Structure formats: structure tokens, C-alpha cells
Amino acid sequence: MAESDTEDLDLGDEDAGGLDNSSKKASGLVALLPNLLKFVAIGLGAMVFIVTVTVITFTLMNKNSAAQELKPENSPYMGTRPQYAMFNAIGVVRTRTKDAHAVVVDMVIGYDQRNNATATELTARIVELQDFVRKFFSLKTADQLTPEKETEIKKEIIEQLNRDVLSPAKALSIFFRQLDVMKVE
User: Fold this and answer.
1) CA distances from 53 to 46, 58, 74 (A)
2) 50 — phi, psi (to 5°)?
3) What is the 3-class SS of 125-143, one letter each residue?
4) Mean pLDDT of residues grouped by 10 in the chain (185 residues)?
5) Is residue 132 a contact partner of residue 162, using CB atoms and an 8 Å limit?
6) What is the value of pTM for the model shown?
7) Which of 105, 111, 104, 117 is nearest to 87 (CA)?
8) How many whole angstroms separate alpha carbon 16 and alpha carbon 22?
């Protein structure tokens, strides 16, 4: 076995053409350099391609959509509040609560100022609106009509008004010029 090992070594020396070990290593690195450069170039080309496709994709996706941003409800940077057209022809409505307190209400309905059909419908339903206000407050107690609960009352009126009275038109806000609850003796 020792002879075959030396023969392989001798054959390797003859194939090298009599070059020493340091020149073999240098020629091996020179042979690897083009392959190494080829893989580096492929990697860089792939990165450039991926970045280009990503930029083009995001540009096309965001081109047609408006910028999206979240605005918290209680942010001081909300901008101006919406302006509503006001319907105030209901007038003063007097009624009694469930617990026999007198109620005097002068309510104003805010609606979208760009919608002329809403103004027409509100005017056409004036008697129905007055009846709605009278019924709404006659089903409440004095404790339910305190100033602390006014926001809840307004939300409830908007919901019932849009659901039960108005058909295509929509009330967007409710304002009270007067909301007096008095104990009757």
C-alpha cells in the first residue's frame, strides 16, 4: 500500500508539471476567482431586481389610494367640526313626563347641508316631528332628563328619529334651545 501511495503522489507531481505547492495554491485561487465573482454578481443582480420590483409595486398600489391615517376621537388635531344645516321649525313643545313633571322642549335638528331633500322631508313632516318630540319626552322620567344625561338623550333621539320618522333623510345632530323639566305642584 505504501508503494501505491507514493505512486499517486508521484503522478500528482508529474501532472503538476513540476510546480511547487505555493504555485499550486495560487493557480487554484486564480481558477476560483471568476466563479466567485460570477456568484457575487448574480447575488447583487438579484438584490437590485427585488428592490426595483418592490418599489414599483408599492408605487402602483399607493398611486390610486388616498393617504390613510388614523385620527383618534379625542385628538386635539382633529380639525374643524362639521357644519350642519339646522331645521328649527318644530317650535316649543310642552308635555309631561311619566312621573308628572312638566317638560318644555325647543329642539333643533342638524342635517347634511348639501342634502336639499332632507330639508324638504323635514318640512313636510313638521307635525309628525312635533308629535315625535311630545311622545319621546312623555315616555321619560325627570331623572332620565337631567343635564348629565343630555348626550345620551340626543343619541337616542337621533336613533329613533332616523329609524321611525325619517325615511331617506337622516338627522345627524340634535341641539336643544330649551330643555326645562319642572316639578308640578
Assistant:
1) 11, 9, 40
2) -65, -45
3) CHHHHHHHHHHHHHCCCHH
4) 49 49 68 85 94 87 63 61 87 93 94 88 92 94 92 94 89 93 87
5) no
6) 0.56
7) 111
8) 12
